[in-house]
Structures are given as C-alpha cells and as structure tokens.
Write the structure tokens for this entry.
Amino acid sequence: MIRWWPVFGLKRRLTEKKEYISPVDLRQPKTGIFNRSLFVYIIDVGSSNALNFEISALESPQYNIHRFGIFLTDSPRHADVLLILGRPVTKMLEPLKETISQLPKPFYTVTIDDHPDQPGLNEYPELPNHIAALTGVPSPDKILGLLLDIAKTKRKES
Amino acid sequence: MKVLIGIVATPEDERLFILDKGKPVLTAVNGKHPEETFGNYSILKQHLSKINDEPMKGPGVFKFRYGPVTAGVREAGCFYLYTYGEKILRATIDISWKQREIAKAMVDKSPETALTMAERICSNFALSHSVAFSRAVEMAVDISPSLQTKNWRTLLIESERIYNHLYVIYKLASAAAQKVLAAHLSALFEEALRLNERLSGSRYLMNINSLGKLNHIPEISNIEKIANKYLAVAKQFTELYKHSLKNYNYLDRLHSAGTLTAEQAEGLGLTGPTLRACGVVDDLNDTTEHLISLPVITQKEGDALARMEVRAEEIVNSCHYLADHLRASDSWYDATEKDVKSHNANGTGYAVVNSPSGAMGYYVEVNDNKMQRVDIFTPSYPGMYAVSQGLEDLIFTDFPFVFESFGVHFADAAI
C-alpha cells in the first residue's frame, strides 16, 4: 500500500527561529530593491566541494530560506545574486565571465573563497557589483545572514 | 579479492598498487600483463580527463554539452551527451574543469602542509583523504600512532560516511520529486554535519587528524549526548527509509537506473557501495586496523535503487557503531599520544582507506622531511567511468538518479 507522504512528520517543527548574522560587512550600499525576494544563482568555479555541501545544507528545513523570500534559482537569467564558490581554476574563468554577462540588472556578486592559501588557483577577475567577499567555509547560518543583509529583510523569522 | 587501486609509474619502471584481501601492496609489473588480470589497468594507465570520449555518429545523432555551469550538476564539471532526441546514446565526462593540480603542488612541501592540502581536495571526503595521506606518510617515516588515534580515526570515518550517504539519498529523493522525504533527509543531513562539528570542531571533520596523532581529542563530557544523537539519527532515518520503501513512485524511478553487473563493476575497478550494490562482498572494511569490523552490506541488482539501499543500511549500522564505540572512548586514553616521533626523514609509504564512496589510496615518497612525490587514487575517478557507462541507453530524466547514486564528485576525480 502506498503511504501518504504529506502527513509524515507533520508535527515536527524543524524550522529554527534565531538571529542570522552575516560574518562580513557589505562593500556597497544596498539598493532596497530586493526587500521582498532574493533569487540566488550558484556557480562553483573551483571549490573543494564543502561549499556545495553547505549550500545543500542551507536548503534544509532548519533554515527554511523560503520564509525570507530567498530562493535558489536554476538560471543566472533569473538571479539577483551570483554566489561564486571557490577561487577559479583557469578553465572556469571564461564560464564565470559568461555567467555574469547573463545576469539581469540590477544584480550583486558574492564570492566565498574556501581556501585562500590554496596554490594553483587564480585571482578573481573584475567582478561587477561585488558586494561581499567571504573566506573559509562559512556555515549555512552565516551565508543566510549575508543573504538577509543583501535582501535587507528582517533578520528574525518573518 | 584483489583490486587494482592505482599505478605508480616512473620512467624506469611501473608498480601496481593493489588492495589484496584488505591489505595494500605494491608489486612490480616485471613483464607480466596486468591488463589481463585487472580490467581497469588501461583506465588508470591512461588517466584521461575526458572519460569515454569517442564521438558517435548516426542518423539524427547530435551532441550537446551539459555543464560546467548548470543547476543540475552544481560542481564545475561537464557532460557531453550524444542523443537523437530522448535516449542518451553516449555520455562523455570532462573532469578537467575542476583540475587544480593539488598532488603536484604538494611536492616540496612539508608533510604537515601537504596534509592540509589533502583535506582540501574534496572536503566532503576530507577525513578519508587526511587519514589515507597520514597512514602513507607514517609508513614512510616510521611513525606508529597510538591505539587512541587509530580508534578515533575509524570512528570519524564512520561519521564522514553517515553524512555523505545521507547527502546521496537526499539528492536521489530530490531528483525523484519526493519533496517531503527530501526535506526530512536534508534535515538529517544538516543534523549529521552539526554532530561532526560537536565531535571534531569542524562540520567536515577537517583539522582534527594529524601525522601520528590527533590535533585534539573530542571532548569526553559531551560524548554521551553525541552518542544519543547518532542513535536518534538512526531511528529517524530508519523510519523515513521504511516509509520510502512503500512508495512505488520513488522506487520505480531508481529501479533499473544505471544498472551495472558485478563483472562490469569489477572491470572498472569500482569499490565501495557501488561494487557492493552489485552483490560483491569486498574487503574494504579490512583496511580498518582495529575495533570490530562492520558487516558488509550488499545488494544484487546493481542499479540506483540497490546503491541507495546499501547506503541506507550503512547509515544505520554506522550510527549504531559510532554510538557504541563513543561510549567506550574514555578507555582509549593514551598518555603516549603526544610523544609520537618519526624515526626516518626519508621513505616510501602507501595506504588505503574505506571512504564513503570506496577505496581511497595514497602513495607517497618523503625525502628529508619534504614530500618528494604524492600519487592519489580516489573512488570518484573510476566512479566517473561507471556514471558514463550507467547513463548509456537511458532517457534524460534518469540522469540525476544515475549521477547521484554513484556518490562521485568532480573535486575528488580531478585532483
């Protein structure tokens, strides 16, 4: 017999109510245009994969990013923020530039350099509207804090 | 059972890095024909960055590129898919988009610096890389880690297995549009990462392992709570898993997707859950030097469903194993832990670790306390061949089930 999923775990309260603090200050003033929603496109340009895992963890019910109007999008053409994971390997420089050229204005770029002292990787090319640069592997609550800062949304549960 | 893990070649000679009944050995080729014994010899010998790269022609057949920038495969990697419309006729995989030349960059570095670099090759396998590298260097410079270090390494590898397996099953559920199942699994995945942090100080178990010892021993006072949390993860996962096995929409998507026979899997040199899902009992658990071995979980079908089932049972086993041994961990205390010393500044070493996706091998040469050579053999490289083979003759909607079920990563394949 097929069991009905929608009632499974319905009583569990997985979403956490807490304050999410960004680990860095924004480099540019916010536009305020993303107050109601923020669509984020992820590009991995040479990360060690921990950041990809952290983005997957960010999508978990504990963070419930949709309640803040934050969504991960499948196309750069729908994105307000380009989240760049890792420092680029040479071959990913062109795809990165091409992806940036596909972003609709206004947009921001955010970099997370997971291992700043890792040899063999390139410096970032000139990034337009580079609003924040993180280093290390920030946990999902820190990434969420940054996105909330960019979106200018109230930090607590809306 | 003998598995060819890698080939250690110099201009003068060539040696085979073999896992023989769970023990890593290095043997000279000496005019023998290893390609007759090991189906994966030519794969490892060529070590191509474009896998299965043979153009295909036919009526209406065309090629299109999927990646390196796509939401479907988030990592920087690229597929070239040959098709005439719906069926994937051939899948070429290009891993060079993630090539960082880390093994080469390790040369001339101190073993300690190279260890940090090993952890960063593929951070979700950070501990497996770290332990395999450490064991190889310890063999080279004659360091004997304490029992306490060995035991903790074994336990931490199991925590790495738990969150990686949860991630794979979560991705499979997402791909099958099982939203409720995927949401609960992602919650468990996040919980497992938090447990890693409580146990080791890092969500990816980084910076805890060192050469011959651990950088710090997990806080004993929290152990009981952490052990109980692992049991809770096992309980919640079992509940979800049993529920998912009654959902035929989900099972039908995974069934017959990316099927490999035992002969095909052995021919590609696969190890770990992928091989075990084909019904082969491997010896990877024997790479553990101590503590009681976990049971070897196998399935027969060799498809995405079988791989998921193997991983699911391993999650539960690993959680119970961790809980049991964490509670006994206070008896491992070893006062000699801090006095570990190397007896040689030069030497050659090799080791294999049972990583979440299969055998992870390291071959190292150390000279005057500097890395002279590092060869890294990861499960994701042969795994990419398996993905390519598994995709053939399937339709496009099966793509994520095949790719995710193998648990391979471009960061791990392209070193």
